[in-house]
Amino acid sequence: MFAFAGQWPFTGTPEVDGHPLAAVTSWDVHAGPDGIPVVTLTLVGPGALSLALGSGAARVQVADGTREALMSLGWTPPAGN
C-alpha cells in the first residue's frame, strides 16, 4: 500500500506498506481507464542506493528501508543478497 500524509511542497515522507522511504525524490500517480492507479517512485537520494565495485563485479546495494518497501511490493532481490 502506498501512502503519503504530507503537504505541498513535499514535506512528508511517502510510505510503502508502512515502511518510510526518505530517499524518494519524486513520485507520480497515474490512473488509466481501468481505474487501477499506478504509483511510480523515483528512489534517488542519500542512502537510497550505493554501488560497490570489487573482484571484477559490480554490486548495487539498497538501503534497508528501501529494500523492505520494495520487497513488500513483490520485488525479489538477486540470489545471495
Structural account:
The protein has 81 residues and is mainly beta. The chain has one domain (2-72). The chain is 11% helix and 41% strand. The chain has one helix and seven strands; from the N terminus they run βββββββα. It has one helix at residues 64-72; strands at 2-3, 15-16, 19-20, 24-31, 37-43, 49-54, 57-62. A three-stranded antiparallel β-sheet has the order 1-2-3, with helices on one face. A two-stranded antiparallel ribbon has the order 4-5. Strand 4 (24-31) and strand 5 form a beta hairpin. The radius of gyration is 15 Å and the shape is globular. The two termini are 24 Å apart.
Topology:
Elements: E1 2-3, E2 15-16, E3 19-20, E4 24-31, E5 37-43, E6 49-54, E7 57-62, H1 64-72
Antiparallel strand pairs: 1-2, 2-3, 4-5, 6-7
Tally of helical runs: 1
Low-confidence stretches: none
The end-to-end distance, rounded to whole angstroms, is: 24 Å
Spatial strand arrangement across the major sheet? 1-2-3
Number of domains: 1
The oligomeric state of the chains shown is single chain
> Approximately how much helix is present in the residues?
10-25%
- Count the E strands: 7
Label the structural class: mainly beta
Spatial extent as radius of gyration: 15 Å
Overall spatial form: globular
Would you list the SSEs in sequence order as H and E? Answer: EEEEEEEH
- How would a textbook summarize the main sheet? 3 strands, antiparallel
